[in-house]
Design brief:
- This protein is an alpha/beta fold.
- 34% of the residues lie in helices and 14% in strands.
- It is built from 17 helices and 13 strands.
- The protein has a 10-stranded mixed sheet, with helices on both faces. It has a 3-stranded mixed sheet with strand order 1-2-5, with no helix packed on it.
- Helix 12 crosses helix 13 and helix 12 runs parallel beside helix 14.
- The radius of gyration is 23 Å and the shape is globular.
Amino acid sequence: MNRVAPLIVFGCFLALAVLPTVASAAITDPVKLDSGLISGTTGTSPDVRVYKGIPYAAPPVGDLRWRAPQPVPHWEGVRAADKFGSRCMQAMGGSEDCLYVNVWTAAASPSAGLPVIVWSHPGGYTQGNGENNGEPLTKKGVILVAYNYRLGPFGFFAHPELTKESGHNASGNQAMMDMVAVLQWVKTNIAAFGGDPNKVTIAGDSAGAAMDGVLTGSPMGKGLFKRAISESGAWMGLNMSIMPTLASGERSGMQLQTALGASSLAELRKKPAADIQAMGRGTPMVVDGYVIPEDLSLTFADGRQNQVDVLIGSNKDEGTFFDRFTTAAQFITQSKQTWGDLADQYLKLYPASSEAEGHASSLATFRDTLGWHQRTWARLQEKMSNDKKLNLHVYIYYFTHDPTPNAANSRGATHGAEASYVFNTPGRTWTDADKALGDQVSSYWANFAIKGDPNGPGLPVWPEFHASSTNQPFVLGEKVDVQPDAARLSLFDARYTTLKGRIGK
């Protein structure tokens, strides 16, 4: 492995990665929204204003449980937006009254017209929140919006009665409808914070990245965003799979109803939230015919996704975050079940002749699946752009930096390792190399939101992705040669072709 010292790779960027500075903030309170007036707080820097806990939809409680987001009731007076709203229901607590959005802005005036990044948090659809620190990104010329969305059995609940009452013959995907509601809120209100409602980039990590992929494929996303950034996730989630059907989601909903001893949807709506949280996880991303009209693999293959620029990628050690390896024998058995006629070819590329070799192959499989998925999205987005004679921009990265290289329990550039560098917010004492990387990555992300191109003064040139060329994903970190080669990518393509043939059968 040819490893280049991080300081050599990044050391010059602290001084050179210069972006246009944002003038002292002149956003004055109260800020007028469509639902009422709010006041915020000053950030750590005096030129940043922060607005927390702004409701973007009515509390989805009582009869509104599991319904599409409803309009926020108007309030009188000035609402203090100085603390985060409740987190959505999850294993560690939370509340159903959780549909809140947070805004960080360093706009010089309401007419500044700054680009906006809307962040969807990670957490496997079952945990997490929008309590990020957006200040460093605001210094790079963007406004950050982060929000909560319904989780688990509250955010991904399908049920036959809910399907009938919906008006769209659909149910499930409440979290995706929350995301759409946030983007509609941004379209209506972000100008009051100095943002441009027509220059919105959706961004997310893991589950949030998958939500970006789904909305890129969904007709409900049309016109709500201009660009998408997905970190380690796409429309199939983190794996290669067929999307679940509405029927399968409804079966899970009925199972939850039976488990809770309810006889109807109305009774389920009266059950304590804690009881529902304890009993179910929900069925994420069902093909409901409304938010997700069809399996999105068909949508992307046919070039019917939304026409947006994309910046997407994955990490070198993704699998260490989800290390479920048991034994080499079990790995071989599962591989034969998963890969079928391709199993022999797969096991040649991912062998398991010993426990150590099987463990390494298990980790490499997860890493390469995500890498393949991101490249597939990049290839199909570029193909749509070419076929329709559009001018879309596609960038793909491969994050390789280990945040804790000297730690005994280091997991390398694991799943989610890039996030603190994207936000340029150290969660520990950063080295000079970490600081340089944080400045570099956050600059790339901000530049992409600003102009659809991550490149800028003082930054190493990030080539645009073209499937017809031999260019590899752009490395963010140390140069390492561990990306999936042509044989592995071809194998994943073959399995994907087989899976697509099973859609609807």
